[in-house]
């Protein structure tokens, strides 16, 4: 579904990261960094809640707003019934929408918030997300104590919290339009190859968006997918060319390959993943580049794998989705 927005702006953003992200190439751009995965808490789950809470507090400080000024909060994560989002936004006492499209949740949140604001149902909204390497590994794969080796196609769940304020108050970055993705089944079953799972959804969404807007990839300064990793990134290029005769060029990149130093941080394998992966890159770096007008128009495509541990154990196909939003420098 294509959505067009007339009066929606990205006012400000905030990012908080864990120790692995703090060693990556974007480390200077994050608002707050933690030295270990516990983030001053007694459990990894509480650490993820803290990461989300911190990002919201920083965002409110940046925008000089109080929690009473916020009309709507939209948040999502990977932890069971989005518990990190629920606990992390509890103290705001604001109307809350919990969302889940896995790693595509950050852009889903922007699309929902923009729809509320554009239709004059709300003047502003916070969109937030989080993920944590240890909580995700514990839930979706083998217990971390097991020490199971992983193939090179596996991605590394990012640790962090990220928040953005959208409003109808004009600012330097406008939310132009977007596209709600369709669930795709590409007959993939490998939970250690998320790039192959999600690339078909990214291709489907990007093609539909270009068709709906009658544009080409050359009309955008930057096209970013969420967390396909270095292998999924190449699969997307192949799919776009083979299925739609569209060649992705140097203006395309993937957040999962940007968040870490893939040459020196070998533990991240194929690159970053998780709901906060693309948000950490988009909010810490791309937003600032738009403010500086390094880019005029950017497409952000968050990709998500829709599965649970149970569906993997039962050998069901892993479904995927990709949501897209277009941002423009004013």
Detail the topology: elements first, then pairings:
Blueprint: E1 2-4, E2 9-17, E3 32-33, H1 44-63, E4 73-76, H2 83-88, E5 96-98, H3 105-118, E6 124-131, H4 133-140, E7 156-157, E8 160-167, E9 173-179, H5 194-213, E10 222-225, H6 229-244, E11 252-254, H7 255-258, E12 272-273, H8 275-291, E13 297-306, H9 309-313, E14 319-329
Parallel strand pairs: 2-3, 4-5, 4-6, 7-12, 10-11, 10-13
Antiparallel strand pairs: 1-9, 2-8, 6-8, 9-14, 13-14
Q: What is the structure about, briefly put?
A:
With 330 residues, the protein is of the alpha/beta class. 33% of the residues lie in helices and 23% in strands.
| Residue share in helix | 25-40%
**Distance between the ends:** 25 Å
**Bulk shape:** globular
> What is the beta-strand fraction?
15-25%
Largest sheet: 6 strands, mixed
What is the element string, with H for helices and E for strands? EEEHEHEHEHEEEHEHEHEHEHE
Class of secondary structure makeup:
alpha/beta
Whole-number mean pLDDT: 95
Please give the oligomerization state of what you see. Answer: single chain
Rounded radius of gyration (Å): 18 Å
Total beta strands: 14
Unreliable sequence segments:
none
Instruction: Give the spatial strand order of the biggest sheet.
Output: 1-9-14-13-10-11
Count the DSSP helices.
9
Explained architecture:
This protein has 330 residues and is an alpha/beta fold. 33% of the residues lie in helices and 23% in strands. The strands form three sheets. The protein has a six-stranded mixed β-sheet, sandwiched between helices. It has a six-stranded mixed β-sheet with strand order 3-2-8-6-4-5, with helices on both faces. Strands 7-12 form a two-stranded parallel ribbon. Strand 10, helix 6 and strand 11 form a beta-alpha-beta unit. Helix 5 packs across helix 6. The longest helix is centred in the N-terminal third of the chain and has 20 residues. It starts with a strand and ends with a strand. The mean pLDDT is 95.
């Amino acid at each position: 579904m294509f959505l067009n927005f007339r009066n929606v702006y990205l006012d400000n953003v905030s990012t908080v990261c864990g120790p692995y992200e703090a060693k990556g190439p974007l480390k200077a751009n994050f608002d707050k960094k933690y030295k270990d995965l516990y983030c001053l808490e007694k459990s990894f789950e509480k650490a993820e809640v803290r990461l989300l809470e911190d990002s919201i507090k920083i965002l409110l400080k940046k925008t000089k707003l109080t929690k009473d000024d916020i009309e709507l909060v939209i948040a999502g994560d990977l932890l069971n019934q989005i518990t990190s989002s629920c606990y992390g936004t509890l103290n705001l006492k604001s109307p809350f929408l919990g969302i889940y499209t896995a790693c595509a949740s950050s852009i889903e949140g922007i699309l929902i918030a923009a729809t509320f604001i554009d239709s004059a149902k709300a003047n502003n909204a916070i969109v937030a997300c989080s993920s944590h390497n240890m909580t995700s590994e514990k839930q979706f794969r083998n217990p971390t104590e097991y020490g199971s080796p992983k193939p090179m196609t596996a991605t590394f769940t990012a640790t962090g919290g990220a928040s953005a304020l959208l409003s109808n108050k004009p600012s330097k970055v406008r939310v132009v339009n977007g596209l709600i993705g369709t669930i795709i089944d590409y007959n993939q079953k490998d939970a250690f190859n998320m790039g192959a799972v999600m690339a078909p959804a990214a291709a489907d969404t990007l093609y539909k968006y270009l068709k709906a807007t009658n544009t080409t990839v050359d009309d955008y300064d930057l096209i970013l997918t969420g967390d396909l990793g270095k292998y999924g990134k190449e699969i997307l290029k192949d799919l776009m060319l083979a299925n739609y005769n569209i060649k992705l060029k140097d203006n395309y990149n993937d957040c999962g390959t940007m968040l870490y130093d893939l040459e020196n941080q070998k533990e991240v394998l194929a690159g970053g993943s998780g709901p906060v992966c693309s948000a950490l890159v988009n909010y810490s770096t791309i937003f600032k580049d738009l403010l500086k007008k390094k880019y005029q128009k950017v497409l952000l495509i968050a990709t998500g794998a829709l599965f649970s541990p149970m569906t993997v154990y039962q050998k069901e196909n892993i479904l995927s989705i990709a949501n897209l939003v277009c941002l423009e420098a004013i």
